[in-house]
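Attaching the record inline, Q. Sequence:
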Amino acid sequence: MYITRDLEERLAVAVRDKKVVILYGSRQTGKSTLIEHILSANDIRREGVVTLSGDVMGERELLAYETMTPEKARSIIGKAKTLFVDEAQKIRDVGLTLKIIHDRLKDVRIVATGSSSFELSEEVGEPLTGRMDEYVLSPFSFSELAGAANPVSERNSLETRLLYGSYPDVVTDPTDTRRKRTLKSLCSAYLFKDVLKWQNLKNSDVLGKLVKALALQIGDEVSYNEVGGLIGVDNETVAAYVERLERAFVVFRLSAFSRNARKELKKSRKIYFCDTGIRNAVIGNFLPIDSRDDTGHLFENYLIAERMKHNRLKELDVQPFFWRMVGSGTNEIDYVEESAENGLAAYEFKWSPAKAAKAKCPKAFAEAYPNAKWHCVSRENYVEFVTGLI
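Structure, as predicted:
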């Protein structure tokens, strides 16, 4: 079953423009399926589509920059009006190749996908400056899944999403056993390949230990020095690996919010997983929600990841943070957003609706930022948060 993606309408418009369209996203999020669906439109199909993949050696060689000329490009594309390059990050100097095609074959639209932003963005960034539009495709969002079924059904699937996440193959798997198998396969065969390929990194053991350490610390502040000490590397190595994990769409960082108040954290960070199913697969824990001791942090991770999907889709100029006073375990807020349009908004997350009803905005935050809005989000009103209604 094809599930309509939030990006589909915008991408369909972009593909018909004159710029090169680049779609990023981790492996198995459905990039190829989405682009193929868009390119199956009658008007595009009638004009002809040529599809090449960086996964295929012969097709990589066809697009090699060293031998690319306008004449060769025309011989490859023929009379077709669309060139689709899948897994483009595997093609050396692909940005220069696409620049030649874009600049010299004015009647050809170009679409490229890549699962590794630190490879593909570096390849296409300078050559295609001013010539491209970039997008990111995440695992399914709440709104996409609610649209495919119905909002009530998806609202009631919260525990399943917390445990198994929202990757397309996982969502469509019919049993928990198959979901676990798919997630383990994603972790071992796909997601970390791009990180290890960076500068030919060979130490998969270090990467595995790092990812597990991060998975056990979601919701907590992360010290690169402490993590490095645990896995036997220096903090610079930890920082480099985290950056690559982030650019491979495995994790994302949240910085501490501060306007220079003396006792506010300024340089700390939290690290979350882009998908909670991947996080649980990393630590091998798929216990039911009511049997876990990390439910609150898992809920927090899910909510923030979904909110960031929403903000990215809506192209909102929002800066995300967390907040905490130095030396205080109670004066903290899970998530803070700042934007020129809506000002400052703070959110506390409580899995239990009963605890949420008793929650109050920390006094120190309210005094420091009297104009900020404050909300407590529980499983009773989480849909309003992930869809941007609060």
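The domain at 8-136 is CATH 3.40.50.300 (Rossmann fold). The chain has a mean pLDDT of 91.

More tomorrow.
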